[in-house]
């Protein structure tokens, strides 16, 4: 059975082992790792995630070799949501479709984020992951 990408598993372990008072600080560091959208990608070709409290758009593309490319668009004034995307952007970089689909749906709970941020925000992050996985599943056939 495929496992989630090693890089993402390392991020999960790092958060799970961190003292509670550092978790939010660690999370916000990921808000800055989302690269800007390339010129050829715009929101029109992306899926909005309505569960997020802020305007959040994503797109996943399975390449011919099976690796998955991801794009996220989220305003700077939503650092927590950007951080969820940053964790996925970094943790899934270079991953193939099977690995992306192997990411546990309760990823953010496993990281210990439920104790650090509101349930509403955790739900938004979970929705981002669910939609990303659905796009990959549809393309991977």
Automatic annotation (TrEMBL):
Name the UniProt record assigns to this protein: Cysteine desulfuration protein SufE
Occurrences of domain Fe-S metabolism associated (ranges): 14-135
Pfam families: SufE
UniProt similarity note: Belongs to the SufE family.
PANTHER family the UniProt entry points to: SUFE-LIKE PROTEIN 2, CHLOROPLASTIC, SULFUR ACCEPTOR PROTEIN CSDE
């Amino acid at each position: 059975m495929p496992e989630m990408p090693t890089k993402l598993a390392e991020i999960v372990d790092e958060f799970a082992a961190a003292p509670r008072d550092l978790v939010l600080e660690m999370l916000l560091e990921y808000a800055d790792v989302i690269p800007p959208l390339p010129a050829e990608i715009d929101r029109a070709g992306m899926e909005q995630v309505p569960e997020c409290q802020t305007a959040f758009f994503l797109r996943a593309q399975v390449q011919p070799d099976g690796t998955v490319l991801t794009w996220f668009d989220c305003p700077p004034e939503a650092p927590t949501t950007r951080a969820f995307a940053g964790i996925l952007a970094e943790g899934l970089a270079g991953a193939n479709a099977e690995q992306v689909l192997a990411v546990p749906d309760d990823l953010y709970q496993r990281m210990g984020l439920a104790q650090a941020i509101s349930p509403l925000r955790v739900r938004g992050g979970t929705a981002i992951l669910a939609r990303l996985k659905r796009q990959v599943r549809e393309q991977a056939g």
